[in-house]
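re: ur question from earlier - yeah i can do the single chain one, its not a big deal. heres the input i used so u can compare w yours
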Amino acid sequence: MSEILGLGLDLCEIGRMEKCMDRLSFMNRVFTEDEQAYIHSRGVMAASSMAAMWACKEAAFKALGKGVTTSMKEVEILHEDNGRPVIRLHGRALEMAGDGHMMVSLTHEAGMAAAVCVWVSGS
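and the output i got, formated as tokens:
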């Protein structure tokens, strides 16, 4: 039976991410190539998606109870064909999660994006 090991919540202002979209150094520091491709594929929703993904990265670190102690790119937000977001952990973030995995929910509305991450035991 799975057990909840941690919970994280974060909010991000969409306008803040909109200002960062053209900063290549920021994009390369925070988002993987696959994440950037997804963001750019979103058209008019790009900044909203980017803000939700940023919030998700922050929420994932909060769920792990460690704060952002490694590269933001080690928490990768991907999307299944049906649009469902999933988290793939890499490097130190994967080590912190141990045998657990993350469940996530993203939303954006009225200039804000939010993410909730639940760290659950087992795979």
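Helices lie at 14-20, 24-30, 33-41, 46-64, 91-97. not sure if urs matches, ping me
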